[in-house]
Amino acid sequence: MTRTRFYELLEELKDKLLIMAGYAEQAVQRSIEAYRLRDHSLVDFVRQYEPQINDLEREIDAFAVDLLAMEQPIAVDLRFILSVIRINADLERVGDLAVNIAIRAGELNELPPVTLPVDIPRLGTLAAIMVRKALEAFIEGDVELAESVLKLDDEVDMLNRSAFRALSSLIREQPHLTTQALHAILIARNLERVGDHATNIAEDVIFWVNGRDVRHQTSLA
Amino acid sequence: MSKLANAGSGITQSVVWRWFLPASGAVLSLCFAHSLLVRCLLAAALLAWFALGLAWERRTARSQAKLLAQYIVRLPDFSGPAPTVASSLLPVVEAVEHAAQSIQSQLNLSGASRQQLEALLEGMQDAVVGVDSSGRVQWSNGNMQRLLYRDAAGALLRQGRPLVHTFRDPVLLAAVQRTIEAAIPTECRSDAVLLGRVFRVNASPLPDGGAVVVLHDTTKAEEMERSQRDFVANVSHELRTPLTSIIGYVETVMDNEALTSPASDFLGTALKNASRMQRLTEDLLLISQTEQADKPLVLQPLPVRALLEDALRTVQGASYAEKANLQITSCAPDEVMADANAVSQVLGNLLENAVKYSQQAGSPTALKVQLSAEVTPTEPPYMEIRVRDSGPGIALEHLSRIFDRFYRVEKARSREVGGTGLGLSIARTLVQQHGGRIWAESALGEGSTFCFTLPLVN
Questions:
Q1: With the C-alpha atoms ordered B173, B178, B183, B189, is the resulting torsion angle positive or negative?
Q2: CA distance B132 to B139
Q3: Is A18 at the interface with chain B, CB within 8 A?
Q4: Which of A8, A157, B136, B196 would be A221's cystine partner, CB 3.0–4.6 Å?
Q5: For B174-229, how does the pLDDT look when each residue is reduced to its tens digit (9 = 90+)?
Q6: Which domains are seen in chain B, by residue range?
Q7: A139 part of contact set with chain B, CB < 8 Å
Q8: Is CATH 1.20.58.220 the right assignment for the domain spanning A3-210?
Q9: Which residue in chain A is spatially nearest to B295 when comparing CA positions?
């Protein structure tokens, strides 16, 4: 295989990953809407995306492994393929978490509506922006942008912790709202995990571009 | 004629002075030379001279042609000296010069149209991007770049990059892909281009195999629509609860046998109107639910015969259809890709209308409603379902409006049969959500036929 063809295949790998990223991003966005609009049809919509995300994960993995085996790349090309494999796994998990959020939102929608002391849509928007920025950093190979995602993670973690505190107090003060509060805690937790996967993607971008391993250097939730 | 005509001093003159005269001298010397060796040397020198001359002339001609080409192509701003060409070549030069001028004027024209087009694209309120046949960005307007220059947006559009680098919405990408592959316009709704914003996306094919994608921001329009819908839904919901209670109590009171005749009549009127109001609130709730753009249909392959039979059974069981003769006249064995609940709602509304309005027209024994389903001979083919009744028919002026909300052909008659004026509007919304169309064919005194199409299973 010529080098030109190899670089074409790397581009193809990148495009495939971005298509999968599109599904994962949509799943997160729809799951947040399912909570915000109390719309049960969106729960099914998110579930419909899961098999497509899983199929694409397998396809991208096979593609990347083939490239590794046939081309035996080195340096930046090797780091790129390794990053794609890791980002692929992260995006698949983002898809799973979106399904979890949607299911919780669906169960919450079946209960009487109550005002909870937690801003789930804000947390969701932040998590979605993190995923979007991390992917943008991947498209552009932009280390600075990737580092800004790591900073955003702290904000998401803080929101998750304050949501936990507020909802725990609610359970103590109004035990009849325990079910709703527990669903909200789990949704916030899942969104925080989405943010963590966005952080992983950003770290992979830094590894790909600079060869620097920045994992486990950010503050823990 | 241009300055070139005066410049042509003739290539032949230079050839004579440069090559022919020295060569003639050499030939003369050859004639008068006595020694064989001298003759041979002179002959060799002569041949070498001519070979050199030929090469020199070729080189000169090539550089002249180059100069000439430069002169012609850069005609408007050519500042150097006019090239020297043979007078025999002047007609050719003239023709080429004319062609060059014509090409130049064409280029100027296309440049002007390009500028106009660019100004038009820049002035557009919508964001526009053009992609080639491989889905790579070729150009975009300023609004598109401004739109994407936000925190919640994707990567900026760059020429030559795949569209997926900026727009990762699977729905949008599938629509553009379809336009490129099938060379047909496509439309979709996307809320993934920019977080918190909704766009209507139209993709149209370009002659070179690519596509032009237009994004129209519908966020505010959708918000307004949603609040209107929510209002209708809330009001309908709030009305339904007291109405159920009113109907329940009126029915209970009416069961009392000691009730006087006028009181019974009054209660009967109250019950009839309360029931009508209940139907109206139910229809309003239904219409607000069906018009929710973000509420997708659950599409699945459904045998059309089963759909018709189900609808027929439901209507046959209703009290208003006791004396109606309902039948399926013909039915294709194919399957449609549809939402079972939605199709059942459409068929139910059409059959209910057919039975109720036909019964009003004349003798119940003559009432006939026929159902049929056939595959259309169009490309792509659709399933066309027809509901034909033997009622009084609808005048031509009403046909185009009967699918509008609250439109009634005869208000008094509609009230009598308990119509709300929403059934056909609901049917139209549901059919359109499937990508089909609905229409009515009728003439006064000849009955009516309501037809709608549904996509077939591929």
A1: negative
A2: 10
A3: yes
A4: A157
A5: 999 999 999 999 999 888 888 778 899 999 999 989 999 999 999 998 888 878 87
A6: 4-100 (no CATH), 124-217 (3.30.450.20), 221-290 (1.10.287), 300-455 (3.30.565.10)
A7: yes
A8: yes
A9: A41
